[in-house]
Specification:
The protein is an alpha+beta fold. It is built from 3 helices and 6 strands. It is globular.
Length: 105
């Protein structure tokens, strides 16, 4: 599994309520996306930075999303260039399901 963290600065701080409204408007874009296990939207306490944490089945699945068109979408939506960090994710503890998930390497 692969985790990607996307971060970007916002041109103006936003409230949690505004962030929720914006994030809900983009959520359908990620629903059912091949290889995406989970996406969490992020907003700093001061409302100046936002992003997302994505858990993927594979790096190839993630790379199919993070294209030039996706970057343009983020820049157009949030007026900021996204920064992507990549992490190998060999183990996930999922307290909601009560399972520990391991990467099938």
């Amino acid at each position: 599994m692969i985790t990607t963290m996307v971060q970007f600065k916002l041109p103006e701080p936003i409230t949690q309520e505004k962030a929720k409204e914006i994030f809900l408007s983009t959520a359908p874009k990620y629903a059912g996306l091949t290889g995406l296990i989970r996406k969490q939207y992020l907003l700093t306490d001061d409302g100046r930075n936002a992003g997302g944490v994505y858990l993927w089945k594979s790096r190839a699945d993630a790379e199919r999303l993070f294209t030039d068109d996706w970057r343009k979408f983020v820049v157009d939506k949030y007026a900021s260039e996204p920064v992507i960090s990549w992490f190998v994710t060999p183990v996930v503890v999922d307290n909601e399901s009560g399972k520990t998930i391991t990467d099938e390497v």
